[in-house]
Amino acid sequence: MQGLPRFRGRIARLTLGSAVCPALSLMLLGSVAVQVAPAGATEAQATGGAAATVTPAAVSQPAAPPLRVELNKLETAGDACKAILIVENGKGGPIRSLRLDLNAFDPDGIVQKRSMVELGPVPARKTALRQFEISPTPCAQVGRVLLNDVAACEGQDSAGHTLSREICLERIEPSSAKGAAPFVR
User: Fold this and answer.
1) Per-10-residue mean pLDDT, the chain, length 185
2) SS3 of the chain
3) Other CB atoms within 10 Å distance of the CB of residue 73
4) What per-residue confidence (pLDDT) applies to 38?
5) Which residue from 58, 137, 152 is spatially nearest to 99, judged by alpha carbons?
6) How far is CA 145 from CA 51, 107, 127, 177, in A?
7) Exposure of 76 by Cβ count < 10 A (0-12 exposed, 13-18 middle, 19+ buried)?
8) What does the pLDDT read at residue 63?
9) Any idea of the CA torsion for 65, 69, 70, 75, to the nearest 10 degrees?
10) Is the bond leading into 121 cis (omega within 30 degrees of zero)?
11) pTM greater than 0.90
């Protein structure tokens, strides 16, 4: 019978002593080499007498605070439909320009109109309200609004780093108020 060779050696038991638990935690964080000492070794013996250090690259950066954009209301004005958006920059830095590429769809899912909408400036830790025409037809003909892309984003995050359109697109959380058309990504 051919097969894989059987391992007949002894498997050493690991005890979860004070040296092993911190070592396993550091291994899970990544990019930190840790040696496991024999059972009964002291922490100084397990680490070779030196304290283990965690590099900044090993610790993941916290997620940037979200930039909430809510389609609050669609309002018919004459023959056109106006949208009211609320931009909540609750924990972010100042945004000088935030230009969104939006598409309005009819209830059957057919694109009606593409709009480039400037929502900036939005001060740090501020909520702003913006209005714009979203469709040349009555609001009853708007089935949903798509956040297609961020065309421009200029400003800083709460840590003072420069924003880019990619960062803003990642941070934006679109939503709709009750009764408004769905606002989706």
Assistant:
1) 50 43 41 45 50 47 80 92 94 94 95 94 95 89 96 92 94 94 95
2) CCCCCCCCCCCCCCCCCCCHHHHHHHHHHCCCCCCCCCCCCCHHHHCCCCCCCCCHHHCCCCCCCCEEEEEEEEEEECCEEEEEEEEEECCCCCEEEEEEEEEEECCCCCEEEEEEEECCCECCCEEEEEEEEEECCCHHHCCEEEEEEEEEEEEECCCCCECCHHHHHHHEEEEECCCCCCEEC
3) 17
4) 52
5) 152
6) 55, 11, 21, 13
7) middle
8) 65
9) 160
10) yes
11) no
pLDDT at 173: 96
- For the chain, how big is the Rg over CA atoms in Å? 27
- Residue linked to tokens 């990619």: 166
Structure tokens at 61: 């950066």
68: amino acid identity, one letter: R
Length of the chain: 185
